[in-house]
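Handout, page 2. Input:
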Amino acid sequence: MTPTFDLLLTGGLLADGLGSPLVRADIGVIGERVAAIGDLSQSQAAQTIDTRESVVAPGFIDIHTHSDVSVLFTPGMESSLAQGVTSEVVGNCGISLGLATAAPEFSLERRWLEQAGGTLSWSDLSGFLSRVEDSGCALNIATLAGHGSLRKRVMGMAQRAPSGTELAQMQQEVGLAMQAGAIGLSSGLEYVPGSYADVAELTALAKVAASYGGFYATHLRDEGDLLEESVAEAIAVAEGAGLPLQLSHHKAERRRNWGKILSTLAMVDSAQARGMDILLDQYPYTAYQTSLAVIALPLWAQAGNPEDLAQKLTDSDLRSRAREWMGELESSGGVSWDAIEIASCPHHAYVGKSITTLAQQVGCDPRDFILDLLAEGTGWVSAAHFAMSEVDVERILSDPRVMIGSDSVAMNPHAKSADAHRPHPRSYGTFARILEHYVKEKNLFSLPEAIRRMTSLPAQRLGWSDRGRLAVGAFADITVFSPTAITEHATFIAPHALATGVSSVIVSGQLTWHEGKPTGARHGKVIRKK
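Output:
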């Protein structure tokens, strides 16, 4: 008998991605798409997978990643595949590797590439996306156009408002990025040079993205003391530009700000009542990870690249003022140096240790240790800051408008460079943690609802009608997992550990992960804005 299907998944509990109750059914796949759902027991297939002990769901969509850093050099994206992720959105937080150039302002981006064994071989977003397609990728990739990168292309690191000519050039850059396939505009207003932009600049650029049907995703200007003001700014930009708003990795940093998310979620309620389209994403951890300078220094003391920051810190007056500011932050309860741990640093012996421990080892004040380390200017220093409340994490997760975004970089735990730094465990565990800890253990929401947050909700934001759900005619991006066995193994101490419990992952109809390991298939697509 001639096979009816290329691939047949039999007997599984199907989650449609829309939050409906699970139902037992078979799925038949022909080519890249789902061809049939139901009782297909009389059908033949070129390949059949018994899924009777598993949940069969749409492939998970990670709405917030930075995997543009790794996709060309870690095309297997094993850390994501092992969790059931089939699509990732890159270019978040105002940072788009595809918009990097040979200009000095992009030295950090070029260093990231060099550490992975590559070089900058494109000049615009279109060239970058073509490189991804030519290289092949295990997952689907979509990208935002990063405002910080666009600003660097036009204004470098200038700490001022753009001239009329410069604003027009940035608008043109947004248009070119959207034409190349970007799905929207992202900003990272806690980072330079994005932090130098005001509402007028951001609104002008967001209007261009709106004209192409894009949305605005923002890493807020401040996620702590000025959290509410920063949410108000984001709403003003999106409302002024007339486009949907995505509040990235929503949280309240530092103990004195815990509970503010009740106010910010109410602000979202109010904006939605006026007709605004606002959604949010979150990773399920109480620590964030970013540049040590962003965590520990005032904005006016920061600079974009390690070399720039080191040069700034040669100014004894600036260093003295920064040290005083850091002392005030500590005394007011804004930071505990013991809660900050080095994650990536040229001094590998520092990795995994707290600022307090390291300062004690060399016999100095923690503030001086930080300033001395950053003054070396020899490389990127990142740190994990254990600064969020688990109560807040659960409150945010409980909101039905919140989808899951890892804020991570896809990795291969067996790569030679894996031990060179300590990534946040979210790279390996975000989606597994949701299913294991917040569904199975804490019963914070149902399994179908959790899957909705990982599938159709991000697909809704992205405008994808043929992904994020299991339906006839939809792309066959499918995840098969055990709801009782799925487990996060990554920790802050030992982060390079793949999740387990996902038995099969199918991307564009091709089996890409099977029986706990990658198949080597590279059928992911670059999904451009239509």
